[in-house]
């Protein structure tokens, strides 16, 4: 588990194809690796990776075919800057929100504009994630815990203050950039809980408007 509070900006130093997937070397910048052991988890742009080698100034990890297919990891090149966060410990401050490091989908930056000293971003999420994104709710973008300011269908807006711009890679974002999205854990579990006993039935993957109406959640 993670908090979505970025601890360091790192960079991709090596991408080595390995039998259909990839081994990556991430240089970790100011991230303190003193308490990191082999097998520990580190979030890289919101993707939970396992450290398999620790040469000193970074770590090696294996990136599965599933991760390459379901995240923006395939867009990385040697030299790409990345957000980094070590896994949550029992004594950590939960400054953001609970983040699993399991990306739900890939979104796209569709606009960027100045808003006083902040930057206003508008992003488009995959249609199937729109129901989990709420006004003033939490969302994780490339591993960063953020508050949603406006929602319009599958599009949502974020206001990014100077500190976040300086401490994450969001200052690099331009129109068309693909980003990793993880929706709020509570929203996903709530959807499953609302299904009740029907969750055990095949094909009951999520809540639909017809389900809500049939079970008294919508007024006729």
CATH topology of the largest domain: Elongation Factor Tu (Ef-tu), domain 3
CA(first)-CA(last) distance: 41 Å
Number of domains: 3
Radius of gyration: 18 Å
Low-confidence stretches: none
Q: Quick one: how many beta strands?
A: 13
User: What is the CATH architecture annotation of the largest domain?
Assistant: Beta Barrel
Based on helices, strands and strand pairing, what is the structural class? mainly beta
Beta-strand percentage range:
35-45%
Spatial order of the strands in the main sheet?
A: 10-9-13-7-8-12-11
Number of helices: 4
The CATH top-level class label of the largest domain? Mainly Beta
Indicate the percent of residues in helices: 10-25%
Biggest sheet features:
7 strands, antiparallel
pLDDT averaged over residues: 90
Shape: globular
H/E order of the elements? EEEEEHEEEEEEEHEHH
What can be said about this structure in brief?
The chain folds into 3 domains: 8-86, Elongation Factor Tu (Ef-tu), domain 3; 105-185, Elongation Factor Tu (Ef-tu), domain 3, CATH 2.40.30.20; 186-215, no CATH class. The relative contact order is 0.17. It has 4 helices and 13 strands.
